[in-house]
Design a protein that fits this description.
Layout lengths: L2 H21 L1 E3 H8 L3 H13 L3 E8 L2 E8 L5 E7 L3 E7 L5 E8 L6 H18 L7 E8 L3 E2 L4 E2 L13 H9 L3 E5 H12 L8 E6 L3 E7 L2 E3 L29 H5 L1 H5 L3 H4 L4 H10 L2 H25 L3 E5 L7 H14 L9 E4 L6 H13 L2 E2 L6 E2 L1
Parallel strand pairs: 4-7, 7-10, 11-14, 14-15
Antiparallel strand pairs: 1-3, 2-3, 4-5, 5-6, 8-9, 11-12, 12-13, 16-17
Helix pairs in contact: 1-3, 2-3, 4-5, 6-13, 10-11, 11-12
Length: 390
């Protein structure tokens, strides 16, 4: 084989391995679509990679037909994902194929302290590695998601007041020092966007928006397959777009932000007279069960979020809006009004109308995105001939 042919072959091998890593598991037909390579070339190279121990294949079904699913070969190496929610902590361990091998979720008090929260995350991570018969030595890195804008270079909260007590705390540095492992930190909605664009509902779109509707509302923006974070990490902070000039003061210090209209307090307070004290989880569950009052406040929230997302849609022109977070568990109760608000405000694109769909990864989206961030930032030596995927 000539030098040019050999170089082309190596480039095609790298393309295929990158596609497998990007999607976690992908059929040979899908590899052809993702890489632009012919089916014959894909089949030939997959056989080489299989023989070299780089990938594994197994039979699966796609649209009722048998297909060959290609994944990275299982090997030593774990990635950890940590998500700090407003009221919970979720930690997962994943192998290099994005498959979760261990998971644990703990409730957290409101306004949980940064020092005790980081301690809990570290202890839980050690416990999970022991649970799967491993040690921290096998963990290649730790991804952390937090519900606040994050400055990409430092991994610190970039806007004061968003998480009480977390200002000016170098989360990545503190956790890295505690566990002696590389730590990467990002906003939770950005990580949800990363996960859904790599492995979930928007994986076949280049440009998408992920909306996380929970105790607060945020968005992650993916442009040309890459998460767009903005200069200081505040891109997508739609929870702090003003929707009511005479409204309540938000935790960010501004008045009438979207979060003051659709956040957990705004949803539970109107129900207190008729339903008594409630949590956001109560509202979601009762809405799912058909309670008219709970369904109404969730529907109102969907319409308000949709109006703001419509403005983002006009500016970014994504192909797809993916909706996740706790409120998305109500399905069309939230999605219907949200979709309708977008439809009324976004210019109708006859070529590629904007789709609004539920997240495929559910409550795991953000923590799966944290794992994907680690695997994206960490070199994975993927075969006998030392082919590197970075």
């Amino acid at each position: 084989m000539s030098g040019s042919q050999s170089s082309l072959r190596e480039a095609n091998r790298a393309l295929i391995v990158d596609a497998v890593k990007r999607f976690g598991g992908i059929t040979q037909v899908e590899i052809s679509g993702a890489t632009g390579l012919s089916a014959a070339t894909v089949s030939s190279i997959v056989k080489e990679l299989l023989a070299a121990g780089v990938v594994e294949t197994r039979t699966t079904t796609r649209s009722g037909r048998r297909a060959q699913l290609v994944t990275l070969a299982r090997r030593t190496g774990l990635a950890a994902g940590v998500q700090f929610g407003h009221r919970h902590l979720r930690v997962v361990l994943s192998d290099v194929t994005h498959e979760v091998v261990a998971e644990q979720t703990l409730p957290l008090p409101s306004d949980h302290r940064v020092d005790t929260s980081l301690d809990r995350a570290a202890l839980l991570l050690v416990d999970l590695t022991e649970r799967v018969g491993s040690t921290l030595d096998e963990v290649v890195g730790i991804g952390v998601g937090i519900p606040a804008p994050v400055e990409p270079e430092t991994g610190m909260v970039s806007v004061r007041g968003m998480m009480r007590g977390w200002d000016e705390v170098p989360v990545a540095h503190v956790l890295a020092k505690r566990l002696a492992k590389p730590v990467f930190v990002d906003n939770d909605a950005n990580l949800g966007a990363l996960a859904e664009s790599r492995l979930g509902a928007s994986r076949f779109y280049r440009d998408s928006v992920y909306v996380r509707a929970s105790y607060g509302t945020g968005a992650g923006i993916v442009i040309a397959g890459q998460v767009h974070r903005g200069f200081a990490g505040t891109a997508g902070e739609i929870g702090h777009v003003q929707v009511d000039p005479q409204g309540r003061i938000c935790r960010c210090g501004s008045r009438g932000c979207l979060d003051t209209v659709v956040g957990d307090t705004a949803l539970t307070e109107p129900l207190s007279a008729s339903h008594g004290p409630m949590t956001l989880r109560d509202v979601v569950q009762r809405a799912v069960d058909g309670d008219p009052g709970c369904r109404q406040v969730v529907a109102d929230a969907g319409a308000a979020i949709g109006a703001v997302v419509a403005g983002l849609g006009m500016a970014v022109n994504p192909q797809c809006v993916v909706v996740g977070g706790e409120l998305a568990e109500t399905g069309e109760v939230l999605l219907g009004p949200l979709r309708e608000a977008i439809r009324r405000r976004v210019l109708l694109n006859q070529i590629a109308p904007l789709e609004v769909v539920p997240a495929e990864l559910g409550a795991r989206a953000e923590v799966v995105g944290a794992v994907a961030m680690v695997l994206q930032a960490t070199d994975v030596h993927a075969g006998a001939d030392d082919l590197t995927v970075g």
